[in-house]
Amino acid sequence: MATDQPIPGAPDVVPVCPRHPDRVAYVRCQRCGRPACPECQRPAAVGIQCVDCVRQAARSAPRTTTAVGGRVRQGKPVVTFTIIGICVVSFVLQLVTNGAWTTQFQFVPAWGLDEPWRFLTAAFLHSTGFPAHILFNMWALYVTGQFLEPVLGRARFITLCLVSAVAASVGVVLLTSPVLTTQGWAWGPAVVGASGMVFGLFGAMVPVLRRLGANAAQVIGLIAVNGVIGFVVPGIAWQAHLGGLVAGLVLGWGFSHAPRGRQKLVAWLLPAAVVVVLVAVTLARYAATIWL
Asked: Which among 4, 161, 273, 284 has most CB atoms closer than 10 A?
């Protein structure tokens, strides 16, 4: 005969964590009632919940978005820190490889058609002879990323960064021409740096700030000052700055002014359209270049 009544004198069953059966757990989840070991406990508004209930609640909770459609997230701007980390690691590799890393990934207009990855990779390199180059760019990326990444969301922000970086190299292609040297025709010089990407972020901040009702005068002034420096100080690729700036303005305006119900659609279609235009004008420029 079976019975579900406890047997007098029988030892009590020790509760264990379902996720870690080897661990005794006397604390129970306030939501599902299952035992939870310290590793699986999460503080809740009332009591403790297990990680499974917390994840289930997060999946079922409605997503909160910003005014421009970015998903609201807690924590640090991971995309910004990731890009900064890649640039720092790349800079170290430039130093330890005695320039080989730079040569492999820098952008030169004459090489762009055969090695198109250079349109993007040059943004993660910096001048090894001028440390202020990477220091300023990383500071500017950190400052702008702290604002734009939470507002736009990670997907839009990383799209903005990458498209602006490519547009910077396209600006160099469009606004420079082959020159005759003692060794023949050459199309250069080599370009490195995240400045074009940074100018893209500067450009995007203007329409985003205006959309949020904030004053964009300081950002506009910063763009103007750095733009003038690019024309006055030799060795600065103002063409890349201009290319990144234009792309950032276009994407920033599109992201911030997309209708509420179509923000996701615009987040995909607008960057795709910008990339198509960049590819088209680049190919046209290469096709129009006559090598003598």
From this structure: 161
